[in-house]
Design a protein that fits this description.
Pfam families: EamA (PF00892). This protein is mainly alpha-helical. The protein is built from 11 helices and no strands.
Length: 296
Amino acid sequence: MSASSPSLKSSVLFPVLLLLASMVSIQAGASLAKTLFPVVGATGATALRLGFGTVLLWIAFRPWTLPWRALPWKMLIGYGVSLGTMNTLFYLALQTVPLGLAVALEFTGPLALALLGSRRALDLVWALLAALGLVLLVPWPGRDAALDPFGVACAVGAGVCWALYIVFGQKAGAGHGPRMVALGSSIAAMVAVPWGVIHAGSALLAPALLPAALGVAVLSMALPYSLEMMALTRLPTRTFGMLMSLEPAIGALCGLAFLHERLSGLQWLAIAAVIVASAGATLGARTPPPAAPLPD
């Protein structure tokens, strides 16, 4: 390689690869968490993820250095509660809904937030396209291989919480960055961990679960957030948002690779509709949407 050739780290490809690796990591973490459901249930897996993940974030970002008295506690509590509820609902959805479809349903939350209040005619097209994706996934009576209604409701509820997470996160994280994420994760753990303890009890403390629990925490929180932070310093916000639109497809591929979840042609079409709608809304926005951590 000549001296004038750009290195990988200085090229635009590097942050793109970082963000793609982050999304693969978080969906692989969700796949690993789903394998814990038979032992500790969805709420138990959520408790393990947020419990261990919060410890790792505290070690990495040292939130105890924050000016505690000056923090926007109302926004921070809203951020943490929405994060904890979102994770719980998403894992409840994964009990009966394939990973890629759960991510697509959840993704409608931030997509609706991006389109809210828009008066551009083209944004109506993206909204209708996203609605088409939802219609294809709705468990209509009599449909073959229809999705579980409760799982669908949980995934959509997780999407609503994701939108709230973004709103609260914008206001809570200003000026303090990843340290506020670590602190917000603590509040999220206070919301989710008790449910896991009630459901799984002492099974959460089984030594045999420790490697998988740590793996979920690393893959779902510590590693993807670190990769994302590096990508955010090198990517325009609009490009970041467009790449994030690929997450439902990455979730579907991880579900296929790790969980052997095969989707029908209509289900892949639904995922494609959500991806195109999200990418179109992001690229067409006058003001680029804020970059937010990957919370699935």
